[in-house]
Amino acid sequence: MNRFLTIFISLTFISKVGAQSSTLSIADSLYRIGNYSKAIQVYEKLEDPVYKNIQIANAYKALGNSKKALENYENVLRTDSLNTLVLYDYGKLLFTTGKLEKSLAIFEKLKEKDTENPNFHYQIGLAKEALQHEDFLSTYETVFQLDSQHQKSIYKLIKNYIEEKDFEKAKAMITIGLQNNEDDVQIIGFNAQLFYAEKEYKKALFWFEKLINLKKATQYVYEKAAFSAYRVDKILKSIAYYEAALKLDEGNYFYHSQLAKLYYQDGIIDKAEHHASQAIVAKMIDTSGDYYILGLVAFDRKEHGKAIKLFKMALEENPDYEAAQFQLALCADSFYSDLKEKLKMYERFIEKFPNGNIEMRKIINVRIRELKKEIHLKAE
Predict the structure, then answer these.
(1) What backbone phi and psi angles, to 5 degrees, belong to 215?
(2) How many CA atoms lie within 13 A of 178 on its CB side?
(3) How much is the pLDDT for 10?
């Protein structure tokens, strides 16, 4: 009888173990293919509380249900408080849900267990930075000392060094970051920003164009590449990049205004006129530059009356616009027949800008002398 009872119990145990193994296999399969809700239902049938709760927590995290994921991680930690993998996932989820102090405490605990793990230090750095602790940067420096391949800590260090204008340290980090991965888009971007901040526009353009060629350009990249190109006299490139930026932010008055100036500089006055008009329509805070470009276009077309009105509109927007005052005087000289009216416009420039642009004042003083002489001769 005892023998038969033993056999029965053994068979029951084997059957139960087999059923649990089958349940586990089904649950894991469902989890792997992303059917998380069904996987949770099957995991609930498992008897192993640790593995069951870990997988349920992971499934809830994948579903975006952070609250239930945290609850299940906490269930595991009640029975296995030193489980490193669970503590790590739990700490990261605490951080992403804004429970920063708790997250910091978890990773400080993990760091005590393993002081050489760079990721524990990195997570501490993230929490400290979010909590605005003063020593957060030194934590990222510790990560880098532990692992010079840790690109995420390198990003943090470069960003902060650039913000603090500690360009030498930023350059050193960028060099190492590029040695780790020469195609790292973030490091390339930081390098472009660094040269841009140092006003080394030729080098900045080179690195911005790397991002453009890698199809990783943002609106910011196109805008800064356009300005860098302009500063190194690559007008056509500057136009192309401002046009690309404009496609990503249609109606941006700044891009229209810049394009108006560049197209006029390149002699394409129809497009200059279009973009200057668009900048004004977009209600730019100071549209004086755009009225100025429209005035130049009208002047080139010998529409002097229209040009005078536009230069006056530019001066209404910005009374200290020296170039507009200068062009207004030149335009009036071509349009008015009255010598005294012409003279008045030139004298107005000298009155407003006695210490203005030397070349402009030279031209105007010569013309004032000529007009005074003509007026005198006419009077005689």
Answers:
(1) 60, 35
(2) 13
(3) 42
Contacts by 302-307, CB closer than 8 A, 24 or more apart? 304/331, 304/334, 304/335, 305/335, 307/331, 307/335
How confident is the prediction for the chain on average, in pLDDT?
Answer: 89
For residue 59, which of 100, 108, 46 has the smallest C-alpha distance?
46
Structure tokens at 177: 């970051």
Q: According to the model, what pLDDT value does residue 24 have?
A: 72
Which residues, other chains included, contact 94 with Cβ-Cβ below 8 Å and sequence gap of 6+? 70, 100, 102, 103, 106
Neighbouring residues of 213: CB distance < 8 A, sequence distance ≥ 6? none
Which residues neighbour 373 within 8 Å (Cβ) at sequence distance 6 or greater?
none
The answer to whether the CB of 162 falls within 8 A of the CB of 190 is yes
Measure the CA–CA gap between 168 and 165, rounded to whole angstroms: 9
Backbone angles phi, psi at 112, to 5 degrees: -65, -35
Q: Which two tokens stand for residue 216?
A: 């990783």
Nearest to 297 by CA among 282, 284, 314: 314
Q: Is 239:207 a contact under the CB 8 Å cutoff?
A: no
In which residue ranges of the chain is pLDDT below 50?
1, 4-19
The two three-digit tokens of residue 267, written as one number: 């002699």
* pLDDT value at residue 371: 87
Give Cα separations from 16 to 12, 40, 262 (angstroms). Answer: 6, 20, 79
Cα 150 versus chain centre, distance: 22
